[in-house]
C-alpha cells in the first residue's frame, strides 16, 4: 500500500511538501528501485514540483559507498553478500556501507534548490536532523549529533541516543534539487547489523591499510527498540510518528487546494531509471 499526503512545512521554508509512505508496500527485489524513485522525484521537485518526504523499507539489502567499491576485495565481498540473498547497490549519494532490512526506516527529504540563496552543505543535514530530533522528542527521547567512532557509515551527522548511533545521513544533489537521505535503525539489534558491515570490510579491505575503510565496533550501534523508547516501538510506529510530526506543522489556513500535485512515476519508468543508475554506478565485479 502506498500513501501520499500533502502538508505545509513552514520550518523548512517550503510552501508545501508531499509525504510518500511506501513502508507497507511489498518492496521491489532491487533496492536500487527506491533510490531511482528518489532521483525521479528530485527532478520533478527541481522542475517546479512539490518537495517530498519519501519513507521506505527493504527486506534484505546492502548499500555501499564509492570508496568502499574501490577496496581491493570489494568484488569478492559483494559476491559474498549476494550469495546470502542481499540486494547490493553502489549508492549515488555520499556515505559508506549500510545494511537495510525491515527494521530500518529510510527517510528521504527531497527539496528544491533556490539559486538565489547561498547553499550551505551542513544546513541541509540540519533539516533531517531537526526532523528526526523533533519527532523523537515528543516521546521523551533526546537525540544528539556528532560522529560516533567505530560506527558504520560514520560522519559528523551521526544521530545518537545515549551516546550510541542509530541513524546516519547522506546527501545527493541534483542541479535544482537536493535529496537528503537518512537510515533509521528502529527494530532489532544495532550491533548485529554492525557485525555484518564489519564482515564486509574484513573481506573487501584485505591487503589495505587500516585507515582505508571504517573500523567498525559493533557495540557503538543501537536501535530505538534497544533504547526502550515508548511510543515508537517498531518501524510502523516510527513511520507514523514522522508523519504525525509533519502533519502537526500544517498551518490552519493551509488547504489541499494550495498544493502542487505529486506525480508518482510509472513503475516501468522507475525500473528504467534503476537500470540506468546501476549502469552509471556499477558494482565492482
Automatic annotation (TrEMBL):
Keyword Secreted: no
Entry-linked InterPro entries: aa-tRNA-synth_II/BPL/LPL, BPL_LPL_catalytic, Octanoyltrans_LipM/LipL
Gene Ontology BP terms: protein lipoylation
Keywords: Ligase
Pfam families, per the entry: LplA-B_cat
An example Gene Ontology molecular-function term: transferase activity
Residue stretches making up the BPL/LPL catalytic domain: 47-232
Keyword 4Fe-4S: no
Protein name: Lipoate--protein ligase family protein
Native source organism of the sequence: Cohnella cholangitidis
Amino acid at each position: 500500500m502506498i500513501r501520499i499526503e500533502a502538508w505545509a512545512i513552514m520550518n523548512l521554508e517550503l510552501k508545501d511538501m508531499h509525504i510518500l509512505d511506501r513502508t507497507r508496500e511489498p518492496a521491489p527485489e532491487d533496492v536500487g528501485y527506491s533510490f531511482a524513485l528518489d532521483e525521479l522525484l528530485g527532478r520533478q521537485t527541481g522542475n517546479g514540483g512539490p518537495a517530498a518526504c519519501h519513507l521506505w523499507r527493504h527486506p534484505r539489502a546492502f548499500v555501499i559507498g564509492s570508496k568502499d567499491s574501490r577496496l581491493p576485495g570489494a568484488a569478492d565481498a559483494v559476491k559474498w553478500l549476494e550469495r546470502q540473498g542481499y540486494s547490493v547497490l553502489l549508492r549515488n549519494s555520499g556515505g559508506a556501507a549500510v545494511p537495510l532490512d525491515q527494521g530500518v526506516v529510510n527517510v528521504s527529504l527531497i527539496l528544491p534548490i533556490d539559486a538565489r540563496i547561498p547553499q550551505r552543505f551542513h544546513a541541509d543535514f540540519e533539516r533531517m536532523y531537526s526532523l528526526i530530533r523533533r519527532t523523537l522528542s515528543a516521546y521523551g527521547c533526546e537525540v544528539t549529533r556528532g560522529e560516533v567512532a567505530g560506527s558504520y557509515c560514520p560522519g559528523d551527522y551521526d544521530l545518537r541516543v545515549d551516546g550510541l548511533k542509530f541513524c546516519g545521513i547522506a546527501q545527493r544533489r541534483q542541479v535544482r534539487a537536493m535529496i537528503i537521505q537518512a537510515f533509521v535503525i528502529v527494530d532489532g539489534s544495532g550491533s548485529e547489523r554492525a557485525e555484518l558491515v564489519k564482515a564486509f570490510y574484513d573481506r573487501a579491505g584485505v591487503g589495505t591499510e587500516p585507515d582505508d575503510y571504517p573500523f567498525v565496533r559493533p557495540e557503538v550501534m543501537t536501535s530505538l527498540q534497544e533504547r526502550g523508547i515508548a511510543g515508537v516501538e517498531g518501524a510502523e510506529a516510527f513511520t507514523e510518528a514522522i508523519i504525525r510530526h509533519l502533519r502537526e506543522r500544517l498551518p490552519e489556513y493551509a488547504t489541499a487546494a494550495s498544493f502542487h500535485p505529486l506525480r508518482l512515476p510509472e513503475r516501468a519508468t522507475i525500473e528504467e531509471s534503476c537500470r540506468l543508475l546501476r549502469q552509471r554506478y556499477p558494482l565492482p565485479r
